[in-house]
Amino acid sequence: MATQEEQFFNENISKANKFLRTLLLYSMALPAVLLIGKALGIMQLPLGYLVLVQAFSAAAFLFNMLIGKTARNTRVSRNCLIVSLVLFMGLLSSNMKASIYVSYGFIPFLSSLYYSKKFTRCTTLMTLAAAIGSMAFKSVTSPELENGSRLQFFWTMGAGFSFELFLTHCLAVYMVQKNFKMLTSLLNVINESNEMNFGLTEKNIQLEETQQKILQFVSKILGSHDFFTGNHVIHTKTYTGIVSRDLKKRGLYTEELTEKNISMFETASLLHDIGKIHIPEGILNKTNSLTHEEFEIMKSHPEEGRKLLEFLPPIEDGKFNRIAKDMALYHHEKWDGSGYPEGLSGTGIPLCARIMAAADVLDALLSRRLYKSPMSADQITEIFRNMSGIHFEPCISESIIRCMDKITACDQFFKKEEEKENVTELEWWQRYHSYIEKKRGRSS
């Protein structure tokens, strides 16, 4: 039997056990009902008999509660419960004035809750033995019966009840067989469905991993064109996730910031500067300030990025593509409307781009550039505090300030991992620009 089927039937045993324990709990009320009947003159039952029934039902309930908590195997608890109920029925029918034989037929039906033919047969045999025993006890001890009629009572009642119990047993076994087949068929369908879903999930995971690798490869290609952009997009991916999850933790934009969307934000951030591929290297890697003309060329990279992303095949039914294009096109927009390329403001800027804008500036401040050294955490905190409501949405600025310790730890990790690579690249670009300046000097 498959693991899932075993788990289902084990859980079913636990649920059925809980139901039978509840029945035992309710059984403790029966002696009180019989006592009321005695007080009203409806039933003539000995007080000692009622006390015995009450004591047994209470002891059986407490015993089975203890077994339920201590037994490692639910089947042990199941067996104890059924035996307790059989004995309880036997005790109830041991007095001639309290005969309730029909209740015996109820026990095989209870055993069918466990979907086991073998267990139902064993329960029926126990029930039959208890019934025959109680009838034999009554035929011997009941003063209502004369000596000559005791044997007749035993055989007549025993034969009639045995036949009724046999019919009940057949019906219970039929229910077990039918329900068991239906459940196993259903579980087989579920197993097959789960296997198919597992296969699809595995393929989806592999596809997502492939997409991630492709996007990281694109970012590395971009980094070969621009000294800083390759590592920059890796950094901003991390900071985008930190800011998004902090906003969600604070109860902000919870409908948009699902874990799946945050994951897409992180991945799409790898492409936010893809438009820089169309920016000349002399401008990207300039060691001093850009001229007005050069800055205008640099400002074209968001629109160039959007154009390039039009060629990206649909991912997540195109939702990822929309996020990537929004991040590429709008990550230089500002909360107060003074950004570019479209001068959007406030919530008119897509949320993913507002978060991307903050992550973009954050890494630029934390990182070394050809023209500047990295800033301290205190300086960056002050900048985001001052730019709240101007450059950045206030709640996003607050998230960066709140998470500065985590951000600083990530930055230190990046610097340690990239130190050797950065030194080599920095020296190369410095030699390159020195050569260009000398060449210009000779030309002049």
List keywords for this structure.
single chain, about 450 residues, mainly alpha, 17 helices, about 75% helix
Helices, strands, pairings?
Blueprint: H1 3-27, H2 30-39, H3 47-70, H4 74-92, H5 106-111, H6 117-141, H7 147-225, H8 229-249, H9 259-268, H10 281-284, H11 292-298, H12 301-309, H13 319-330, H14 351-366, H15 377-386, H16 394-402, H17 404-443
Helix pairs in contact: 1-3, 1-4, 2-3, 3-4, 4-6, 6-7, 7-8, 8-9, 8-14, 8-16, 8-17, 9-13, 12-13, 13-14
In angstroms, what is the radius of gyration?
40 Å
The amount of beta strand, in percent, is under 5%
How many strands, what sense, and barrel or not for the largest sheet?
none
Low-confidence stretches: none
Per the principal axes of the C-alpha atoms, what is the gross shape?
Answer: rod-shaped
Distance between the termini: 87 Å
Order of helices and strands: HHHHHHHHHHHHHHHHH
Return the structural class. Answer: mainly alpha
Tally of strands: 0
Total helical segments? 17
How much helix, percentage-wise, in residues? over 70%
User: How confident is the prediction overall: mean pLDDT?
Assistant: 80
